[in-house]
Automatic annotation (TrEMBL):
Residues 47-225 form the Succinylglutamate desuccinylase/Aspartoacylase catalytic domain. InterPro entries: AstE_AspA_cat, N-alpha-Ac-DABA-like, N-alpha-Ac-DABA_deacetylase. Its cofactor is Zn(2+). It comes from Marinobacter fuscus. Keywords: Hydrolase, Metal-binding, Zinc. It holds the Pfam family AstE_AspA_cat. PANTHER family: BLL3975 PROTEIN, SUCCINYLGLUTAMATE DESUCCINYLASE_ASPARTOACYLASE FAMILY PROTEIN. GO terms for molecular function: hydrolase activity, acting on carbon-nitrogen (but not peptide) bonds, in linear amides; hydrolase activity, acting on ester bonds; metal ion binding. This is Succinylglutamate desuccinylase.
Amino acid sequence: MARAPFEIAGVQVKPGTRETVEVPVAKLYTHTPLHIPVEVVHGRRDGPVLMVCGAIHGDEINGVEIIRRVLKNSALRHLRGTLVAVPIVNIFGFVQRTRYLPDRRDLNRCFPGSESGSLGGRIAYLLRTQIMENVSHIIDLHTGAIHRFNLPQIRAELKNPETARMAEAFGAPIIINAGLREGSLRAYADSLDIPVITFEGGEALRFDEVVIASGVKGVMRVMRELEMMPAKKGPKAPRKRSETAANSVWVRADIDGIMRPVAHLGQRVRKGQKLAMVADPFGETEEAITSPCSGIVICVNNLPLVNEGEAIYHVARFDELGEAEKAMDYFRSTYENEVADDAVVPVHPWDEMQK
Ligand SMILES: [Zn+2]
């Protein structure tokens, strides 16, 4: 029996075809209608229905490029099941280059939302009724906040075995078993029993090639794991790709000042090791920021101007730190020499000189 068409916003996408559908959201006060663009790739054969979405925080743009590259992949012709790609969920924030909605709400705290609620509630309602409630799996793409660069990592509620399987398949070096935050897309999907993982990598308003390349690879690996794509020929990955953190801790500045970073992203650090120096502009008072534990640096603050109490470094702790280091080594070796045809190149020539 032929597969039924996939229906979204009144549009029927036939099996074996793909279509860009404009899901109407609202009107701007200029009378300009606003849509969330969605690309549906509806495979000929039955299989999982995977939603991949980005920019629910409007300034987190790496995911938009990850989705663009996934959609270009010629292997999608052999897709089993359906890919529902939503590169820009928070269109308001994306246009304004901000994380939030025009009423300063965080769309990722507005789920499940309602038809008559706030703007965020209405967009959440639309997203869940038009898309989320018709999919079987979700990958939600994020970056660090502004000035904060996240090491590529997966956050997921690992007690759901299907979620854990997706998290492992994605192959980011670090997995964080992260609790669900009320009102988030992830919490709502989990309440519907839809396996969902969040990918975090890079920082807001910036592209980063390694983050983007690892995100693209991760999405494709999950699709292969779910048998939406044929498995790759050749031997399986010989080495350890991911290690799950026991927990993680934010390291904060004790004094106000100007920060000079010492430790870098992905570095293994010991308890008490210097992460950064903070000094006043004359260098009269100077203090070292040290790591409260051994672990791997999974986020760094790139802004040198810090206030007392500000989060500067995020360090993940592991039961087996050596295993996490192996996962980091594998990650580095995978992306060291691999350059995509349409790679985002570093714009500073001295990035190359420093190698
Ligand atoms: Zn985010």
